[in-house]
């Protein structure tokens, strides 16, 4: 086996960089598609795509979304799942890949967890100030 053939099988820094660029590209395009095609305004909710993780084989992509507003996160995920075929079709028109990834939507509550951690730290700080 030649050195060129061996080097193609090992993951390289460029391959990781390519994967990160692909994740960002799919995130940006999918955000725009969701904003244009799905109306969440009647539900009083703002939907944001926080991250996309496309599998190395390009056959699936995990999409992490967060919500801000009155609607429950589960109902937003259900609505996105219902529109998944149309979203995938539109994504395939905007991002040319060997395969169009199967979109899997997840509710990302990291922002809420981060806010809760900050809240707890503030409470600890207040309790620490009272002891002195």
Describe it for me?
There is one protein chain. By secondary structure, the chain is α+β, with helices and mostly antiparallel strands. It has a single domain (3-131), classed as 2-Layer Sandwich (GMP Synthetase, Chain A, domain 3). The chain is 57% helix and 20% strand. The protein is built from five helices and three strands, in the order H-H-E-E-H-H-E-H. The protein has helices at 3-9, 13-37, 73-82, 84-94, 110-131; strands spanning 45-54, 60-69, 102-107. Strands 1-2-3 form a three-stranded mixed β-sheet. Strand 1 and strand 2 form a beta hairpin. Helix 2 crosses helix 4. The longest helix is centred in the N-terminal third of the chain and has 25 residues, at 13-37. The chain is flat and about 60 Å long. The protein starts with a helix and ends with a helix.
Strand order of the largest sheet: 1-2-3
The figure for the number of domains is 1
Overall spatial form: flat
Overall mean pLDDT stands at 83
Please give the count of helices. 5
Helical amount = 55-70%
Please summarize the sheet with the most strands. Answer: 3 strands, mixed
Tell me the CATH architecture: 2-Layer Sandwich
Whole-Å distance between the termini? 71 Å
Radius of gyration: 20 Å
Order of helices and strands: HHEEHHEH
